[in-house]
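Each record in this resource describes a single protein on a pair of labelled lines. An example record follows, reproduced without changes.
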Amino acid sequence: MASGTSPGSISPHPAIVFAAIFIAIFLLHFPLLRLPYFWDEAGYYVPAARDILLHGSFIPLTTPSNAHPPLVMAWIALWWKLFGYAPQVTRSAMLVISAFSLTGVFRLALRVANTEVAIASTVCTALYPVFFAQSSILHVDLAAAGLTIWGLCAYLEKRPWMVVVCFSLAALAKETAILAPLALAGWEVLQSVSMKAGARFLAHPLREKACPEPVEGWGFSSTAFQWPRFFALLVPTIPLALWYAYHYHRTGYVFGNPEFFRYNVAATMSPLRIVLALLMRLWQSFGYLHLWLLTAAMLLAMLLPPVRDEQGERQRIAIPVQMVFLVLVLAYVVALSIIGGAVLARYMQTVVPLVIIVAVSTLRRRLRHWPFAIAAVGIAFIAGWFWNPPYGFSPEDNLAYRDFIVLHENAEHFLEARYPMARVLTAWPASGELTSPWLGYITRPMKVVQIENFSLDEVLSAAEVRDKYEVALVFSTKYDPPHPMLQHWKAWQEIKRRYFDYHVDLPPAAVAQILSGKIVYSEEKQREWVAVIEMERTEILNAGLRNGHLKRPE
C-alpha cells in the first residue's frame, strides 16, 4: 500500500523544524562546545580549514592533502572569519549542519510516511550515539549525509534541479557521497530494463490472457524511463571531477597523497578483508551501539498484523520507496567495505537514518502502543552516550571522545607546567596537541619525539634512543573492552593486525619499566588512560635548565 503524508497530518515549515531542532541539540551539546579538537579534527580538518582562513588555500598547506573536497572546511573558515577562531565557534557551526541534516530526516520521513513517523525518526536519529557524538565534531561525513538525505527527498519528489544541487553539494562535502546519485542512476536503468523485460513477458499471447492488466513490480515503476531525472543524478559527478582536476593541477595527485591512497584503497583489496569489512558495515547499519534493539523490534513487529484504527489499516512506506532505501544501504555497505582503511561507523551516517525511518514506520504500523517501543529505544540510545559497549569501538562514536580529550588536557597541562623545556616522547594525536597550541591543549609549543603507538615493538625502539627525550606522554591509542571476544584466538589477532592496524598498547607501568623511567602522573576514565613518565636524570636536567646552569644537549 502506498504511503505519504496523511490528510490529517500537520506539515510544519522547514524553518520552524530547523529552529526547534537546532535549539534542542545546541542545549544538549552545550557542555561540549569548549572542548579542544579531537583526533582527525586536529590531524586534518582543523588545519585544512585554518589554511583556508589564513591563506585562502583550498589545498591544505600545513598537513598533507587527503583530497577531500573543501566545502565543510570552507564553511568552518567562514564562521571563524565572522565570529572568531575558537572551538565553541567550530562546534556551533557543526551543530548548524547537524540541525540541517536532521531537518532533512524529518522531511524525508514526512514525505514517505507521516508526521508521527517523522517526529519519532528524527528524535531517534538525533539520539543515536554515533549521530549525537558526530554532531559537534568537525568531520565531513555528517554534512555529506545531510545533503544526501535532502537529495533523496528531491529525488522522491521528482525535482531534478534540487537533485542536482543537493547531490553536488554532498559530493563536495565528501567524495564518497557520490555513491548515492550513482546508485540511484543505476536503479533507474535497472527499473527500465526490468519493465521492458516484463512488458515482453506479458506481451506473449498466452500471458496476455492470464495477466491482462499491467503489474507493479517490487519497487519497479510502470512509468517510462525518466531521462531528466537520470541525467540529474549524473550531473554531481561533474563538480567532483573538477575538484579532482584542480587538486591534481596543484599537487600532482588525484586522490590525495600516496600514503592516504595506499591506506584507503590499495591496502584494502584483499578478499578476506572485504568480507570482514562487509560484516562490520552491516553491523554498523543495523546493530551498532544499541541500534540492534530497533532492528529487533522491527523484525518482531513484522510477525504481527497491521493495526486498524478509525482511518483504516495503518499504512506502510511504499514498497518502491523501501526499495530505493535498500539500494542506497547496499551501495554504501558494499562500496565502503571495499575502500576505506578505517572501518569507522561515521561513514554510515547516510544510511542509518533510512534504517531508522523504516523501522519506526513498521513499529507504528503494527504496534498499537508503538510510542513505548520508541521511548525504550531512545533511552537505550541515550545510555549509549555514556556506556561503552562490550566490544571494540571508536571513542568518537559516543562521549568517550570527551573522556579522551579531558584526559589529554589534564596530562598536557601538567606536562607544560612541570616540564616546559623538556623533549617529550609520545604518539599521535598527542604529538600534534603538544606542537600546535591553536588546537587548544597548551599555551606554547613543546618539542616532541614521535613514535607510532605504544606497542611493545615501538616502545623497545624508543628505549634505544633515550638520550633524545626527557619525559614520555603515553596514552591509550584505542579502546579495548574488558573482555575482548576471541582474545585467545591467535589467528583472529593476526587478522586484525594485518588488515585493521590492530595493536596492543602496553600499560604505563610496562612502558616506564622498559624506558627506565617513573610514572609521575596518571589518570583513567572507562578504560581510557594517560600517563606522564619521567626519565632518569630529568629532574636534575630541568632544574639546571630553569636556573640557566646547563645547556640542553643537541
Remarks:
- Residues 399-547 form one domain.
- The chain has 24 helices and seven strands.
- The chain has two domains: 14-393, 399-547.
